[in-house]
Amino acid sequence: MNIILIGPPGAGKGTQAKRLVSARGMVQLSTGDMLRAARTSGTEMGQRVAEVMERGELVTDEIVIGLIEERLDSLEGTGAIFDGFPRTLPQAAALDRLMAKTGRSLDAVIEMQVDDEVLVERITGRYTCGDCGEVWHDRTRPTAQPGICDACGSTNLQRRADDTEDALRRRLMEYYKQTAPLLGYYFAHDKLHRVNGLADMDTVSDVIASTLAQV
Ligand code: AP5
Ligand code: MG
C-alpha cells in the first residue's frame, strides 16, 4: 500500500508516519527529512536548500522530485508513506509518472486537518531526536527525562531552525497557495480521505488505520 499524508506544518504527518512504519513495516519518505540531511552535506546545494527552508519557502520541484525518484528506485518494505511530498501540482504529476514507471499505485491520500491556531503551539513546542528522528513536544509529548530521547537514549535533541512563528507564517502561506490545490486534485481522483488531526495522537492513528482498512 502506498499513501500520502498531506496537511499544514505541524499537522502530525511525521508523527503518524512513524507510527505507520512501526505498525505496518511501511517506509517513510519525508522530503523535509531528506532535505535536512542534504543541508548538512556541506555542498553548495545543501547551503542553498538550508536558506530556503529557514525562510519557510518551498525548495524547487526539480530537487525534491529528484530525491523521491532516487528513493523509489530502491524502495523495499510493504509500501511508501509520502510525508510532505507532493507539495505542488507539478510534484503530484511527477509522482504519478514515477509510480507508473516503477509499477506502483497510489492507494490513499490522507488529509490531516488542524486549525491554524493549534499549529503555532505544536510547532513552537516541538523537538526532535537528532539520532533516531523521534518527534517530541514540550507539552503534549515530553520525553520522560528532560534532554534524553526515550526511544534511543540519545541526548542529541534538537529544535528546527524553521520552527519560529515567522517562518511558520510563511510555511502556512506556502501550504495554502501551493499545496492546498492538491486536495482538489486527489478528490477528483477519488483518493482523498479527511482525518481530524486535532484529536489526540492515538485517536488519529486509529482513524487512519480504519480509513486504510477500507481502501
Ligand atoms: P517538512 O519537514 O515536511 O515540514 P512541514 O510540512 O512544515 O511539516 P512539519 O514536519 O513541521 O509537521 P508535521 O506535520 O510532520 O508534524 P509533526 O508530526 O512533527 O518540510 C520542511 C521544509 O522543507 C519546507 O518548509 C520546505 O522548505 C522544504 N520541503 C519539504 N518538502 C518539500 C517539497 N515536497 N517541496 C518543496 N519543499 C519542500 O508534529 C508537530 C508537533 O506536534 C510535534 O511536536 C508532535 O509531537 C505534536 N503532535 C503531533 N500530533 C499531535 C496530536 N494529534 N496532538 C497533539 N500534538 C501532536
Ligand atoms: Mg514532519
Outline the structure in words.
By secondary structure, the chain is of the alpha/beta class. Helix content is 48%, strand content 15%. It has nine helices and eight strands. The chain has helices at residues 13-24, 31-39, 44-55, 61-73, 89-101, 116-124, 165-179, 181-188, 201-213; strands spanning 3-6, 27-30, 80-83, 108-113, 126-129, 135-137, 157-158, 192-196. A hairpin with a 5-residue loop joins strand 5 and strand 6. The longest helix is centred in the C-terminal third of the chain and has 15 residues, at 165-179. The model has no long low-confidence stretch (mean pLDDT 95).
Query: With helices defined by DSSP (H or I, 4 residues minimum), what is the helix count?
Result: 9
- How far apart the termini lie comes to 9 Å
- Major sheet strand order: 2-3-1-4-8
Bound molecules: BIS(adenosine)-5'-pentaphosphate, magnesium ion
Shape: globular
In short:
With 215 residues, the chain is an alpha/beta fold. It contains nine helices and eight strands. The radius of gyration is 17 Å and the shape is globular.
Overview features:
215 residues, alpha/beta, three-stranded antiparallel sheet, 9 helices, binds BIS(adenosine)-5'-pentaphosphate, binds magnesium ion
Task: Give a topology summary.
Layout: E1 3-6, H1 13-24, E2 27-30, H2 31-39, H3 44-55, H4 61-73, E3 80-83, H5 89-101, E4 108-113, H6 116-124, E5 126-129, E6 135-137, E7 157-158, H7 165-179, H8 181-188, E8 192-196, H9 201-213
Helix pairs in contact: 2-3, 4-5
The structure holds BIS(adenosine)-5'-pentaphosphate and magnesium ion (MG).
The site of BIS(adenosine)-5'-pentaphosphate has 35 residues, from helix 1, helix 2, helix 3, strand 6 and helix 9.
